[in-house]
Predict the structure.
Amino acid sequence: MLQICVCALTLPPSDVLVCPLRPVERVHDLCPEEVADLFLTAQRVGNVVEKHFCGTSLTFSIQDGPEAGQTVKHVHVHVLPRRAGDFSRNDDVYEELQRHDKEDSPDKWRTEEEMAAEAEILKKYFQEN
């Protein structure tokens, strides 16, 4: 497996972004190896966050282009562990993702220290495999 993806925690407390290191705007801009690595990494991350956050399902989300709701011009996959009743309507998760992606108020962002601490907690799961 190629080492071309990175992960970042976004929506507190459990949404994780998986994105290729090479910044491209759209999925069709990725080479086949990057597509494979992106989804293999998303699958692996999904297994970890579902276990850690006691989820029973996962939502994988990509907004590919502005009409699809993409607000960040860099391919990324949201990986969200889900549980029964976590949103009043199941598809509300997509509205929350759009709201988060448009958030431009730094006082609502998690600090680098908070994100580093969360990453350190999740890191142990990847070291077990």
Notes: DSSP finds three helices and four strands in the chain. The chain has a mean pLDDT of 81. The beta strands are 5-9, 16-20, 57-61, 77-82. The helical segments are 32-52, 92-101, 112-128.
